Amino acid sequence: MKERIIVLSAKGWSLEDERTKQVREGVSVHYVMTDNLAPNVDSISGVEGYIPMKQSISIDEAKKLQGVPGVYDGSFQMRASGGKILFIY
């Protein structure tokens, strides 16, 4: 699924696994699932506006972000996990 999104922020992170000592790195991205900030009301939940979402992406993927905040094409997959549907970037 492709969606136009507004990326609000991007911040790099690095974690070392205590057991294996392997270092994992990525970039946390906060975004909204729209390409404009026109007034919006979700008819099902009643939420007004846009609730920011958070996703971790690879450092290589983050290099495609040329300016933040900015409007981008996001590619997502839906996956069930623990009874919830997750959007995977």
Detail the topology: elements first, then pairings.
Elements: E1 2-16, E2 23-32, E3 53-57, H1 59-62, E4 70-75, E5 77-81, E6 84-88
Antiparallel strand pairs: 1-2, 1-4, 2-3, 5-6
Descriptive overview:
The radius of gyration is 15 Å and the shape is globular. It has a four-stranded antiparallel β-sheet. The protein has a two-stranded antiparallel sheet with strand order 5-6. The model has no long low-confidence stretch (mean pLDDT 89). By secondary structure, the chain is mainly beta. The termini are close together. The chain is built from one helix and six strands; from the N terminus they run βββαβββ.
In short:
With 89 residues, the chain is mainly beta. It has one helix at 59-62; strands spanning 2-16, 23-32, 53-57, 70-75, 77-81, 84-88.
